[in-house]
Amino acid sequence: MTASKKGISAHQLHRMLGITYKSAWFMSHGIREAMRPGGETGPLGGEGKTVEANETFIGGKEKNRHKSKRAKKRLGGSWGKETVFSLVEREGQVRSVHTPSVTAATLLPILKAQLDHNTKLMTDDVGQYRHRHRDFDHEVINHSADEYVRGEAHTNTVEGYFSILKRGVTGTYHHVSQLHLKRYLAEFDFRYNERTALGVNDAQRADKALEGIGGKRLNYRRTNGARA
After folding, report:
1. What's the confidence (pLDDT) of residue 227?
2. Does a structural domain hold residue 61?
3. How far is CA 141 from the centre of its chain?
């Protein structure tokens, strides 16, 4: 799980290890819990650093669901999909949040809590990012006018992270429930934050995941409850 860029499914672990699927599934969630950051984490960015912010949507096509199960359109959300908001520091780390929507009211508290106020912020031109210049040195890429790069201004880094996340969800896990999405995000964030480009090899990454188990306990009842 720490070495496979797009993750490894519980079915694959069940076959390889010769244990039940239920055991493999629960073990996988225990490892993901270990990958979640523990304790206080400092802000991303800072003086001279750039952070890209963007959102994506995880889930199947709403038209493929039975009519009775189709979700209602949510403000700032997408039909039947879960919203993921990520902040990626260039040549640094990523932080992803499962959020109910991507309205300004939802995202501004996340930006203020997770970013150093001296950070240069890069976003696209959608409405929820308007007026962020009041809080950060903010540059906007005008995607609606087919602008994707303007000098150092772009959101290609966060888009690259989303491509890894979505290929893993679609190709490896196929379906990620709303309840457990936060742990899958922790898994992909962990591998990105402990990647080879930052000087971390496979063995060191595995050791760091094991260290993350300290002080945490996940029992099977909690994986299906609101307190998980």
Report:
1. 46
2. yes
3. 21
Strands 50-58 and 120-124: parallel
Model pTM above 0.85: yes
Helix, strand, or coil here: 23? Answer: helix
Structural contact between residues 136 and 116, judged by C-beta atoms closer than 8 angstroms: no
Kindly state whether residue 36 falls inside one of the protein's structural domains: no
As a residue count, the chain comes to 228
Q: Is 205 helix (H, G, I), strand (E, B) or coil?
A: helix
- What is the model's pLDDT at position 110? 93
Closest among 44, 52, 57 to 101, alpha carbons compared: 57
Asked, for residue 24, whether it belongs to a domain, the answer is no
Asked if residue 163 lies in contact with residue 94, where contact means CB atoms within 8 angstroms, the answer is: no
The enclosing domain of 120 has a CATH number of 3.30.420.10
User: Is 133 a member of any domain?
Assistant: yes
Number of separate domains in the chain: 1
Pairwise CA distance, residues 154 & 120, whole Å: 12
Q: What is the mean pLDDT of the chain?
A: 88
Q: Please give the Cα distance from 116 to 110 (Å, whole number).
A: 12
Cβ neighbors of 48 (< 8 A, separation 6 or more) are none
d(Cα 168, Cα 163) in Å, to the nearest integer?
Answer: 8
Residue 178: domain span: 43-201
Residue 222 sits at φ, ψ, to 5 deg, of -70, -30
Beta bridge partners of residue 207, listed in sequence order: none
Rounded to a whole number of angstroms, the distance between the first and last alpha carbons of the chain is 21
Cα separation, 148 vs 158, whole angstroms: 13
